[in-house]
Amino acid sequence: MRLILVRHGETPSNVVSRLDTAVPGPGLTDLGQRQAAALPEALAEEDIEAVYASTLVRTQLTAAPLAAARGLDVIVRDGIREVSAGDLEGEAGDSERGRLYLRTVLAWAAGDLDLRMPGPGGESGAEALARYDAVVAEAAAGGAETVAMVSHGAAIRLWTAVRAHNLDADFAAAHPLRNTGVVILDGSPADGFKALSWAGAVVAPAGEGGPAGQTAEGPTP
Question: Would you call 183 helix, strand, or coil by DSSP?
């Protein structure tokens, strides 16, 4: 299966760099709407047979133009929603508590999957991966050769760092994914995945460098 992971378009919370992970969340800014409208052309060469989005409004709005262009319905699944911020919800991304969110996600990517986000609403890395895995497995079982999933920055970085054999936690830390940034992978739940490109750049094997990107200093969910 060719798996295309797309981060949603810009939201008002992205503009002010504020953690906003709760369902249903905000819609898109005017720029975010233009980013969503540009996706069908950006992915015109991909033979997409299924389009998924999370339960957050911003992913569904981002996925809608792509699905419409392909004559498809958007399949909504909770499993590919953003990593829940727990007690960190609403924190500024450049604050100490805001940075704790991304540090926790990157700790998961490095293997500390039992660590939890602070607060009763915070999930563990194992829980976040399991729900994401379930949606990928559903898509693979559906038989589509190419699937697009519109998801979220931290969730995509976590899942790809753990499930793509040529990515790792260091790569995830160094490569934030901008709004409507695209990650393309090939593989299956049974055999694992290989990341082919990240935001348009070819991905090198883990530890051998990769596409240029700024080190993430805070969350952009």
Answer: strand
